[in-house]
Amino acid sequence: MIELLTTHYIYVLTFALLGLGIYMVIASENLVKKLIGVNLFQTAIFLFFVAMAYIDVDGASAPIVPHEGTPGEVMVASPLPQVIVLTAIVVGIALTAVGLALIIRIYAEYGTLREDTLREVRADE
Amino acid sequence: MSSADLLLPLLIAVPILAATLPIALGLWFDRTGWYVAAATTGGLFVGAVALANEVYTGGNVIHRLGGYPREYGIELVADEFSTLIVLLVTAVAAGVLAYTRRGGPRGNTFYTAYLLLVSGLLGISMTGDVFNLFVFLEITSIATYALVASGDGPEAAVAALKYLILGTVAASMYLIGVAFVFMATGTLNMVELAAAIPEANATLIRAGIGFMIVGFAVKVAQWPLHTWQPSAYHRAPDGVTPLIAALVSTASAYAFGRVIVTVFGVDYLTAVPNLAPIVLTIGCVSVLAGTVLAVIQTDVKRMLAYSSVSQFGLVIAAYGVVVAGESETALVGAVVHLVGHGLLKAGLFLGAALVATSYGARTVDEYAGLAKRRPFVAGSMAVLLFALVGVPPGVGFVGKWYIALGAVESQLWPVAAVIFLSTMLTLAYAARLLEKMYFTPSAPADATHPGTAATDGGTTDADAAAAIRGAESADPVSVGMIAVVVVAAVAAVALGFAGGTVADLLEPFLTEVFN
């Protein structure tokens, strides 16, 4: 078990962060914190993608760093996951922006950011 | 080959570029949005028909973006399955546009979001790359969140935020699935993946499948992950609900089917233990839960939204049958039901929007006596409801028939029983609405609520027709709006007759999947 944890620490870290994010989404009553939870959830996936590029090639260096040694012998991590993560980050930013805009609208209408208060206010109407 | 493959990137890029126009032109002119959107959607529809002509006569059309080969670049693919969805998206988008001309929502920002949504949906239909699929899913979703939030009142914002949080988590789940599959195979292209997956590390692939199924179950609104859908459909503006109800979940369900049949492959999935029972259970439980919840609703839009949960459950159950029994028939059923349901729901929600605009009627009880006041709308809605229940020759019957046939062929009797039971329950809520419309006299007290008065100038054909009738020109409902609902009803019946043709058109795709 311990060995599994130490050899597969990327999975452990990723899923700890994923769990933290989803816990915030579910348990937090504050809408902004919920959105932070969503962001945390996504960040865990981004880290997972970046770490993944190094899994097959141990000791590889980042693709953008200039290397010493003869060409053809240098181990380079796959650049594709990093490109993917860049795109996914942009998507995440757009989502956060839309989410924050919605939260501002909700705050302006109901005067609260807490979900329990929000539920009470909406039940009264 | 001709330059027909250029149609693929154009179908996606044109609406994105056109989406900037309503806001840019809006700095100088009011109300340019509709014209930009109409011109773009019209062009897209023509393009889609040309593409369909190419695909159904000459086979798959493939475009490599930037000329990069499959291993490095992104491919856009139009095959028999995706072309049907492209046709559905452009047709429904054009129909909804005919409604919003008079029925609203107006304003240039609405049309910007609308065009982005259409672009995302076409992207989902045609992409040949699993990560690109994620990006288009998110473009579609972001546009949908904005459209849902544009509804009147703060409740729309709450519904949109709920949808945003659930939808983002779902899309992220799909992304984790992509990460696992990529880790096992080192490629993102669907065709390359299909070739690489059988030899890849089975544990990683299965983890990927699991995450993808959860992600799609939320996006397609399967019980118990459906909770975002009724509030989102209910709170969205009347002109937006037909669009998102007919297309957004349909595109996600299409993507799920695409991932099952093209990426993982039916042969591979059949060998994965417990996969087919899980997918079948998700689908069947959603069918029953959706219909039962729909029966107890009083609000028409909410009722139709829960009905969507059950109808998509049917599609997911059909995928389960495809995986469990390698059934071609069930796949045809899933495709026909997907397209048919998109059309039916668009028509029904447009009808509901029309009634709400004219009389402010939103609950089932308020539909009393509608057949007298609006014979065409009530008649069309009746036809659409019968088609939804599955009365032949409506398109709903054809889809259900193929799915049930596939289930029986694969010895999956419980699925056939669930389909039968859900048909009875669907009849229960459809009949309630029909009874109100045709056999209950309208309450004398509720005279016509004046809807939002039309302030839009201009003369399209529909407006001209309305103007000739003079006295009714103040009516908030234009002839064009009624015509769209009637056309949807006629198309639902016509497609029902054409069910066999669709199966023939799909034939090359099926042989490709099941050989």
UniProtKB/TrEMBL annotation, chain A:
Annotated compartments: Membrane
GO cellular component: membrane
Lipid bilayer topology: Multi-pass membrane protein
Classification via InterPro entries: CPA3_antiporter_subunitC (IPR050601), NUOK/Mnh_C1-like (IPR039428)
Transmembrane intervals: 6-26, 38-55, 83-104
Keywords: Membrane, Transmembrane, Transmembrane helix
Superkingdom, taxonomy of origin: Archaea
NCBIfam families cross-referenced by the UniProt entry: PRK07375.1-6, PRK07375.2-3
Protein name: Cation:proton antiporter
Lineage of producing organism: Archaea, Methanobacteriati, Methanobacteriota, Stenosarchaea group, Halobacteria
UniProtKB/TrEMBL annotation, chain B:
Name the record gives this protein: NADH-ubiquinone oxidoreductase
Localisation: Cell membrane
Stored InterPro entries: CPA3_Na-H_Antiporter_D, NADH_UbQ_OxRdtase, ND/Mrp_TM
Residue span(s) of domain NADH:quinone oxidoreductase/Mrp antiporter transmembrane: 128-426
Keyword Cell membrane: yes
Domain of life: Archaea
Lineage per the UniProt record: Archaea, Methanobacteriati, Methanobacteriota, Stenosarchaea group, Halobacteria
Membrane topology field: Multi-pass membrane protein
Assigned keywords, A-Z: Cell membrane, Membrane, Transmembrane, Transmembrane helix, Ubiquinone
Listed GO MF terms: NADH dehydrogenase (ubiquinone) activity
Any one Gene Ontology BP term: ATP synthesis coupled electron transport
Principal subcellular localization: membrane
